[in-house]
Structure formats: C-alpha cells, structure tokens
Amino acid sequence: MKSAVIVFPGLNRDRDMIAALEKVTGEKPHLAWHGDSDLPDVDLVVVPGGFSYGDYLRAGAIAARSPMLQRVKEHADRGGLTLGVCNGFQILTETGLLPGALMRNRDLKFLCKVIHLKAENTTSPFTTAYKGHEAFPCPIAHHDGNYFIDQDGLKALEDNGQIAFRYCDENGNVTLEANPNGSIENIAGITNKQGNVLGMMPHPENLIEAAHGGIEGRYIFDSLVAAVA
Amino acid sequence: MLKNQNIEITPELIASHGLNEEEYAKILELIGREPTYTELGIFSAMWNEHCSYKSSKKWLKTLPTTGDRVIHGPGENAGVVDIDDGQAVVFKMESHNHPSYIEPYQGAATGVGGILRDVFTMGARPIAAMNALRFGAPDHEKTRHLVSGVVAGVGGYGNSFGVPTVGGEVEFDPRYNGNILVNAFAAGLADADKIFLCAAKGVGLPIVYLGAKTGRDGVGGATMASAEFGDDIDEKRPTVQVGDPFTEKCLLEACLELMQTGAVIAIQDMGAAGLTCSAVEMGAQGNLGVELYLDDVPTREEAMTAYEMMLSESQERMLMVLDPEKEDVAKAIFHKWDLDFAIVGKTTDDLRFRVIHEGTEVANLPIKDLGDEAPEYDRPRSAYPAPSALGEIDGNIDVAQALLTLVGNANGASRRWVWEQYDHLIQGNSVQVPGGDAGVVRVEGADGKKALAFSVDVTPRYCEANPREGGKQAVAECWRNLSAVGALPLAATDNLNFGNPEKPEIMEQFSQAILGIGDACRALEFPIVSGNVSLYNETNGIGILPTPAIGGVGLLKDWAKMMTLSFKEEGEVILLIGEKGTHLGQSALLRDCFNRIEGDAPAVDLEKEAKHGALIRNLIDQQQLTACHDLSDGGLVVALAEMAMKGKIGAQLELSNDLGELFGEDQARYIVTVKSDNLESVLAAAKAQNVPVTQLGTVGGDKLEAKDIFAVSVAELSDFHESWFPDYMAAEAAQ
C-alpha cells in the first residue's frame, strides 16, 4: 500500500504515524510538506495529529485552508482513501470532507488516557479487520475532541452506517460514563458517506506493537492493506 | 563613543538593578568608568543570583559531577550521559517558581519551554519530560487557581510541543502559600559524538539570531527571580514571558535539521537574560569577543531601546555561530519553518563585548569579566536548630482509618487528575506511564529493547528537620525509584529551591543539603550533571520548605524485563526487602493523622541503599520478581495499598500492630512479590547479600487485610485515593 503523510508545521504525531505505517505496510510513506503543491498518486493519504500552526485559531481551521488540503480534497473526491487522526480529524471536518465539528472537551481540559472503543461498522475499508475485536482499549490525547453534529446530520450518519467508532466501557457497552469528552452519542470516529474518508480522535498509531500495550490500532492499517490489495 | 541614553546612573537605579554598593564598586573598578544604562542592565543580568550562582557556587563545587558515563557535566545547557551504542541522554531540570506564582499558566508553560530548549540546543530530540510542583495549603485561597493554571500551562506547552510527560511530583504545604515551586525536567536523545556546545570558535564568524522575534516581555525577569516577593507582586506581571509552543516546535525541527548539515559551530538558547547571557556565554566560553548589531535583531515591538533588547526574555529564540560557507543552507532551512534568521553580530579576537545600536556603541565591556568576575560569596551561616524531639505517640489507632486518610488526602491521593492533562503517550515509546515508581521510555535507534527510566524526588519536610539527611534522602529516593523499575541509575540533575541565602540559617540549611546530596551521589555513583538553583523563595519574610528536587535517569537494557508496582496474581508471595520499620519522626502518619510535625528525618544508610538496590536490580534482571515498589511516604501499609489499588487485587498479610512497623518511613526498603516457585531462590539471593527479608503474606482477595489489625476493601481504598483531586478541583468551578 502506497501512502502519504501530510506534514504541517506544529503537527507532532506525524513521526508516530510514519513509524506505524512503516511497521505495518513495510513501506515508508511519502511525506507531503504543507507548502508543496503536489501530492503523489498514493492509495492512502493521512493527516496526522498535533497542533497544526499552533491551533491558535479554531483547531484545524488554518490547515484546512492550506494549498495542500486542496490536493487532499481532490484525492478524496476521486475516491482515494483518506485518514485523519486527532488534529487530522479536526482538519477534515474544517475542510468539509467530514460532517460535524469538534468542540472543546466537556471538562474543558486536555485529556490523555487509554479509553475503550467499539467498532460500530466493520464493513468500511478502514474497519474490516475489527470483525471479532469490536471492543478494544485505545489511547486518546486531545483538548478538542467533543464531536457535535445536528440531529438531521446525526440521523444521516446512523442511517448511512457512517459511525465507525464509539467510546465504550471495557465490555463494549456504550455508556455515558465511558464517554471521555462529551461527544454526541459517544462518537469517536466517522466516515464520509462514500466510506473512503475516516476521521477519528483516538490514536491507532500509538497502538500497534507490544510496547504500546496492545496492537488493535494495527487493524485499521491491516484493513486498508486488504482494501487496496 | 558610548551613548548613555541620557539616563543618569543614580544609587537608586543601581539598587533597583539588584546590585549592592560593593558590586557596583567592582563594576567601576573593572571598567574604569561609569557604566552606561545598557551596561548597567547587562551587569545586573549577568551578576544576579539566577545567572551568576554567586551565593551557591562555593557549595555547588563540592558536588560529584564526573563518572565513566558522563560526557558533559554542569556548565553546558544540560548534562550529557553515555547510554551505550553511541547514544547519549541529555537532561536538566530548571525552576520557574516566581513567574508561575504571578501568572501560573504562562509561567509554567515557559518553564517547560525553557528546559526543552536547553535540551535541543545541544542537538538532542526531547523524549521525556517531568515536573515537580509544590503548592500552598489546599484551603489557601489561591491554591486551586494556581494548581489549575500551572497544570494547564505545563500541559499546554508540552502537549503542543510533542514530548511525553512521564513523571513528576505534586505536593501541598502551607509553607508554599506565597511561593509555589514549578520545576521542569526534560531529557533528550542524541548521538554521543554529535553534541553541540555553546563555546564560540573562530574569529570574524557570523553570529546568527534564530527563532521568534524580540519583544519587551520578560525584561528584567532574571533579576526578579533573584529577589523576594512582597505585597507588590502584581506589579511584576509584565516581567513574565509568554510562551509559543508552536514556534518552539518549529525551532526544534529547524535546529535539528540545520545541525545535520554541519553548519553549526556553536549554539546557545536565549533563556534568562536573553541576548545578553547567551552572547556573553558564547564568547567567554570560547575565549573570544563578541560584537552585536542591535539594528539587525528582529523585533516585534516598535522603538525598542538597546537596554530592552539586551534584557528581553522573549521565548523561543537561539543564538548561533555559523559556518559562513553554509549561510544559504541555514537560511533556507529557517525560512522553510517560517522562523526569523538574521546575522546580528560576529566573533572578535579582543575579548570585548560590544553592542552597537543606531550607529553608536551602547556597551563595551570585558567579556570574560562579565562571567568570571561575577561576585562569589561565602555567605555567613549560623548553627541550624536540632530536630525537635519526638513525643509520645498513642499507638492505639484505627489502622484502616489511618490508611484511608493517608491514601486519600491532599498529599497521598492519586495524581491522575494532573497527569491525564499531560500527553504521556506521544512518540509511542512510553512503556511505563505516570503513577508508578518511575516513568520509562523506550529508546529509538538502538536494538528496540533499550529504555530510559526517569524519576524526580525530594521530601522537603525531611530537609527542614535535618538538611543533611534530607539531602541524602532526596537522592536515595530517586535512585531507589529507578532501581525499583529495574533501571541502573546513571546520573541526576538537581533543582535546589531555598529561601533567602542572606539569612545565615537558610545558608546553613542550603549548604548542609548540598553536602548531603554530595554524600549520597558519591556513595551511589550517581553524579550530578546539570542543575539549577532558585533562592529567595520567600514572601514577606516567610521561607519555603527547603526543596532540593533530584531528577534522575536510569538505563534498562531490555524494557520487557521492566518491573511495575501493581500486584499481579493471586497466590504470589509478598516480601519486604530491608529492615522492618521503626522511624516515625517527620512521617506522613504523624503529620496527617496526628497533626504533628516533629522528630528527626529518617537516617539514610548509603551502604545499605547501594546493597539493597543492587539486589533488587539483579532480581529484576533475572526475572525473579513480579512486582516491586519502593517504600516512602506512609511506609509499609501505604506502599502495600498502592500495589493493591494498581493491581485491583488484595492481599492477606501477617503484620504486627506496631505503628513504626506499619507506617515508619525508614529508608533503603522495597516491597516485592514473587511467584511461590521463585521464593526460595529470592530468599537465598537476599541471604547471600546479607539483606534482610521479611515474608509479609500473599496476594489475593478483594481486601487488604492483616489479621487482627485491619481490613479494608481495595475498592474503598481506590475510591478514597482517586476522588480527592477531582473533588478538590471541582470546587473551583463552584467557587
């Protein structure tokens, strides 16, 4: 699987994402600098996490208006696989590639912890490998992960099977207590209607080897490898 | 011609620069004339306590700073220690106490920014951060606000910069009511043969200014950090700098990229006293003069004077001596990261520090004398009061209740509320996160097995009762925490926070604590490779508890063998390594359950520490243990409770009801668990080393239970332990 990682100044989980892609796919991703005008033809484009341009404006707002995001949009519009994690998710919602918005966490604080996720949909190209592993622990680390969408939008997400991951307890129950940031309906990750764009707040790139305490983040990349094979 | 900016140098002006009459006389003698206003500012910046270590130098010289693995000790931006395979760890700890009390968010944030810069200036990519925070009494009106701001500030900077915060300390005591402590630690990874230093080399080479623009923020900050607070501290707010972690992240990437090209001859970050201190250090350490052209310094405010530019503490700035042939390469890298890059001076061969602004020379000083001739004081000391006597203690208490108090009060409760606000997982190498004895981070670029352990420790109440033993204990506890995860302790950094050194009693306290630190570092082969001194931590004449925080680094050859403190499985045998407890003086039990602060600090037997620690590390390396925890605040029962809560499993214990045995804080002790199959071999190993071992019981059940003494459910313990901090902070919103 050929992949590209978009690098904005201020991102800081780009190195984690590059390491994860290399470990799972055996290939180094192409690095696309925000100021470059070209994005090579790849199977997967990843917008990783961090604080693009410092996020001094609304999280992801500046990055979403950079020239490179136009290329990402074109790639996604052509049906190309596109993954946004954390700040990447925020950026993808800011560009309109994904619906809804990410607000400040319910408790107004940055939160880094291992939560549990439930794969709601194991048919998207990002999630097929989660079949049989529907609930798993996964790290989060964000200040603005409180997903919001209006009622019509929410209904559309549910009707179209666009909800990829929800926060749950260790037994897979989607409860209020298991919701770390106030996201509507415990939503942790969604796809677009076509299913080729995934945005998620948790960090699968920090969950791919024994040293991470689990390997369930790998399944996203495994699913993608299978999807493009 | 020297331009004096038409400001008269009056005795009041001199005093407001923190210089006394004697010091000013020395300036006159050194330069043979009255200084200009800018020169007065430069002297004030270089000769204040924060930069010159004038009260502490005599004592700092007594610390052991060398060792087989030490590549660079104190004197550089950070210490550098060999970790095999051609790799080195670069680390330091520094205080940002005064700014954090005035403006907690920015004060703490820029403290983190400053220490990260110290590390990457040397060519190391930061891989771990820690912090030691001390606040006033929980019920003091300012405490919540300060906790909330400092924690958000530490997180705000470190999270955005992208370094995992893997450990730290948070303590509350009324003695910090008017003067909190914010000590930030950072460690980075570098190739041992690619360390960058600040000494300039070569005459006539360009001096380059990198990073963010210069503003008026922080003008005189280092001088402020060298004075006591009075009631007028709100007026000092403008001296606190504002942090920009985004620019710092760009600066990190640009510096590391530039260093790869071989263009960097010398580099120094602009920290305390900004441009002044960095330029003088580069020249003085390289035996060269420096000429600066202030008109070329990138500024973000209009009409800045030479004085302001020289003393600004704007953040995220660096100074560098550049190989002139690589100027274009360097410029391209900095422009790619949208950072300022300006040639602002050159090195000279005349050992003068010359500053030129708007065509005139505003300073012309002997560069070596600015550093080397800084005053050095052997300040008077007076006898330190002996520890108070330890009165009778009524041993007839409800042990379960005492335990719940100790694990569920301000100083014993879980710090999860704090460390969940810090990104402790970024970089994907955190194999032990906060909440254990030490944070552990896997090292990239070697065999994938190597890891580094980090811990920061000090027990201020011990240091107050007995500065020498307290100094030893801070080192011993840090060393023990590293050993408890299976790491070989390599070296340490110290952050010495004390009151006003002009008071003979404080000076005695300070010198004794340093001697204690030195004793322990020598005995445990744990040299001090970097550090920072923060004095004048007093408000309206009330000093803080003496707080010499020790930040240590240890090496694990294989992180898969790393030990954690949680109980693992039913039936495993619990052992106490070291002697049974007896010492209740200055204990947490006495303070928190009897409301008494008395007695001596526990004595530290360094020979025993070394022996017991070596045994622990060997047993861990041989995979004989299943859990290990060092004993500290609250003694045996609190340590057992922590192991139970972390493992969510109880234990059946055989204990006596002697309070010293249950809660004593004697040193050189660990609790370990072993599988019953390994019990004999562990006992034999301890016996062979002549280390006392006591079998305490077995892991199992949902209660921590000692027959006829106490029983308390693990769930209840956890409830108490986890709820204090969130409940306390929730009251902030309600206020």
Plain-language structure description:
Chain B: Its EC number is 6.3.5.3. Chain B: Pathway: Purine metabolism; IMP biosynthesis via de novo pathway; 5-amino-1-(5-phospho-D-ribosyl)imidazole from N(2)-formyl-N(1)-(5-phospho-D-ribosyl)glycinamide: step 1/2. The complex is a heterodimer of chains A (229) and B (735). Chain A has helices spanning 14-25, 61-64, 67-77, 87-95, 151-159, 218-228; strands spanning 3-7, 30-33, 44-47, 81-85, 101-103, 111-119, 135-142, 146-148, 163-168, 187-191, 197-200. Chain A contains six helices and eleven strands. Chain B is globular and about 85 Å long. In chain B, the strands form five sheets. Chain B has a seven-stranded mixed sheet. In chain B, 61% of the residues are buried.
Summary?
The complex is a heterodimer of chains A (229) and B (735). Chain A is α/β, with parallel strands linked by helices and 229 residues long.
